[in-house]
Fold these 3 entries.
Entry 1:
Amino acid sequence: MEFATNLTFSAFCQQFLVGLSRTTILFIVSSGLSLVLGVLRIPNVAHGSLYMLGAFLAYSIATAFGGGSTGFWLALVLAPLCVALISLVVERGLFCRLYDREHLMLLLFTFAFMLLARDLVKLAWGSDYRSLSAPSMLQGSFSVLGMPFPRYNLFLLIIGPLVALGLWFLTNKTKIGKISRAAAVDREMVAAVGINVSWVFAFVFVIGCFLAGLGGALVAPTQNITQGMDHSLIMEAFLIVIIGGLGNMWGALLGALIFGLTDSLGILVWPQFAIVFPYVAVVIVLIFRPKGLLKATW
């Protein structure tokens, strides 16, 4: 149980960049969860299952198109869209009928859906590990201060800000985005002016699930695709949403930065207990800011 002795500036920069690339995945998934939580007031515990489903669908789509660059890019587009379509069917077929029920009923429904999705994934893909290769242009690494940094991680660093910008534009500059924000504050008033709140909820739910599927598709080339990959992710996503501020998208970004960077730098500082660092950071934040770093929408 010794501290790492190779704390050089170049190693710190490398781990910092790795942490930022992990932050991208955490932010994309957490922002979807935060969006659903902020507008629908529902902690969607099945969000991690949709993330896992996105990874498996990305693998299957890429394989169906022969792998390689074409298969990867098609998988990156089609897998999140498939997850969004599935979520729309579930929301319109079942979920929308429960909006007038207590929040506990909705929570139990998402938990049941999580169990069902897990079994369906097992039936469709079995228990074996799967892997998806990045396209040739994103394979290999380049040098950062004399140390290698994966090209795919750089790709993730580019995708993250683009997703954040897209979400900002959607929620602040589009009509449906503004209506969704209004519904998060006062859904009764939105309904009173003649807007179908149920379809607003459907739109928000589908966007949130799309982001979960996108996160799964993006993470597929960086780790094994397997059942159980949703377990730790959903717990981390909820912690990120809590410390960022319930329903606050920028809070999700800030929480993802804290979680991703402390995790990555913890590996550099104290590898044996690196897993503890993000949770210590969460505890510290909640001690000083019990309601989260930014204003919650609740």
Entry 2:
Amino acid sequence: MEYSKKQKYIVWGIIIAALLIRVAFVMVNGSNMFLGDLDKFDNDDVKYIRSGMILLEEQKLVYKYPDQATAFIGPVLPMILALVFTVFGSDMNGIIAFQVLQAIIGTLSVGLVYVLGRDFFNKKIGIIASLIYALEPTAVRNTGYILTETIFTFLLLLMVVIALRALKSKTIKNYVVFGIIWAIASLLKSAVSLLFGVIFVAMIFYKYKPREILKYSVVTCAVFVIVMSPWWVRNYTQFNRFIPFTASTGNPMILGTFLYNKVDKYDLRGYIYGKTEIEQNDIEVRVAKERITRKFKEDFWQYAYWYTIGKTIFFWKDSFYWKRLPLNNWDYIIFPAVHMIHYTLLILGIIGIILCIIKDFKKAILPLGIISYMNLIHLPFFVMSRYSFPVMTIMIIMGAYGIVKFIEIVKPIEPKINQTTDGIEDSEAEINLEEQVLAKH
């Protein structure tokens, strides 16, 4: 069998295994994966479920308050939930069906990890990275949560795949596709709304001429505006103000002002609550800005550390929501191993990034840019592992690169030793032959 065919079988084997593992996980654990209470609607996941139900029944997007239209969240996840509920119902059957859909989307992400590893570097690195991501415990577990992360991870990976191809090909089509996916992803998580800045910088390293940078930037941004415009019109019509993405930055900004995520509710005494989500967000943004200004004046260096290095550590330091929702006693036993896997992948990723910068800086630009962007964009807010989860895929790819490069550095030692030994043996054989010839004469 040809080597290329073996690789295809391996890749498809990884993808099929990833699908079976994810589907099996949600079928067994799906009904126990709620962070909140379906009767109280007291957490993100159950609020999303309610949003999907009301969107289906009343064609109205809501979140915190079922009687108020919202711009607190983007429309993508509630729309997908509503579509699934249309077919399977909005009871537990519909919820499990959505989780199975997430299992499929999570599996597609495994495929995209392979494609990215291959396109960034080579097929071998793509295979290693996809195998790691197919089996990585938090990636499997995440398919059971009714949150944005599974779908967003897929969209982020798809954006990076298209961006890399656009940078290499310099074709309008790829930039148009990128603009569409960028807008949809921004309607799911506004954190990527400035992501094109990374592509803009990458164009310089890919030796684009200034007029090319301008042309492709205008095309991409124009497509982005076209896709986003219905959301903008809806928000202006509904709330009589321009809301580009979501009106939900206030609360995570306030929580982010507490050192080391130790939120003190008493410190928020006198906190004024608004009558609507929009009004409440405006108050929270104002209070957050006041707190940031005051805290930096009180202890500049401590807060400067917190808003840079401190939050970066919290962004990366944990595996995604493992301890928060223990499914059974095994979760407590398995967690140390999961934590170790997380740190191992981080270390390998950092090693891979360093090696890539040293060996081929141009190849490091896009993955390093995406990782840095996602880290930096979250620093003004409350940070946790939930937000680093999507870019752990890029870190895994860089880790696979590090593994392969390390093997390549170590492996050539053996052939050199053999080559030296063979050379000695050949020399000895030649000497013996010469002695035999001389003896005959």
Entry 3:
Amino acid sequence: MDVRNQSLMSGVTYGQRRRDGGQVDWTAPNRGKYPVSHVDTFLNRYTSLASVYRDYDEALLDDRSNARFMRNDVGIRECLDSRQRSVALLNWHIEPENSSSADQREFCSLLEAICRRISHFTEYRRNCQHAIWYGKYGIQHRWGVQIVNNKSVWMPTPRHQDDWGWKPLNGDKLVFRQQRPDRPLQPGEYEGQVGIRVGSRYSVGDVINGRWKVQPTDYGLGYFLSPNERRLLLIHKHHIEDADYADGVRAGSIYGVGIRSVIYWEWFQKQETMAFLMEFLERMAGGIQVWKYPQGNQQAHDEAKSAAEGYNSGEQHILLVPVPVGDTGQYGVEIIDPGFQGVETLHQLLTQYFGHRIKRYILGQVLSSESEATGMGSGVAELHADTLLQILQSDSANLEETLTSDLLGSIIQINVQKGLWSEPGFRPRFVIQTEQADIDKQLQAWTSLLDRGLSFRKRDLYQLVGAAIPGPGDDVLDPKGQSAQKGDPHGQHPGAKPAITSGATSVFQE
């Protein structure tokens, strides 16, 4: 029996039943390969002998020093820190695929406790957001066993007081392997394999961790991670883009493009304008000094020059002017104000043009960092706030996916491989709450549904208002002014049956 879907494109093999034994051959479409390799979609290949994607960031391609300096621009750093803080300070939780499953909720509760146990987890999430600048950013984990909710768990674990169990990894230290047509991949190598640049203390062929040899990259040496070692690393990526057909140098942008690459030339022009303005002020701030001397009198010329240099400290522009013999005023000093209308123009060019264009790209608006007239009832401020919110929601959604795959996925797989857990069979999701719930509206909706005979879990009501469920022995407030029954944290009478039961097998191995 042929189970191929004829509506799909031809030339791609799908699972089909063999005639000999009747077994279904579920060969992946196109044998699990892309239709065309990414590096083959460019007019020309631009790679090094090291078979890695070359630096594709505009700042790195032009000047590595500028790439470092521009991040210290206070105007840029203010905007970046604002985006990072805004996302790092948002509330979060772990969400199961099926919220009605008690086992999935229990498992997500443990994962959430593990994440909250990670040292300085707010700073952890803020560091992930460095990817918006570099295009990609990493975090290395140091794994160890901890007891969480009475269960042994492999998780990022500090080794001493000044260790957090994780360390940030600058995005410029990450490289990705590119397959060369003239050099087949060696055992253990694969397209897109992540590498970490290492220092000059190593030489080509040196072995790290007893596993892999140090290899050359386009810039320095690198250590490439095996699939299992890749689990020890979180890599957050910003905008994923494919480079132009004729621009093979930037093929590596498929692994993340950051703000630095986009605004580099805008920032560079701003610096050039700033240098021109400072040079103008240095020369002209004190005016132009015109020192006069009789024309043709070399001694008078030398004396006027010596007097001008002795009078000034080099901060003012000096002009020696010969006066024809017979004219009045052959000696003297005159100060000419050059006018500063151009200075104001340059200042507006720096702040209103370059400065605002850079801020608008990073934050989507300028009102969150500057005061500006918007007009009564214009709605401009609300529009700017909504634009910023959309950017933060996009950052949060992107970070959710990275934390789900590279943090939660690693925690699950490592604990399953170590035999502490069995495979849960579902994939929990890291959720960042970008909007605060309107409690009043939700309570009104719940009250309306309760009047129609629908029931709700009391735990959801506690979570909605941000209150903890009373535990045994807690001194609680009762609506009737009486204390609740001790030992009944959910407000049920002693002996009452629990509202939710589950007979599913737990994913934890006791």
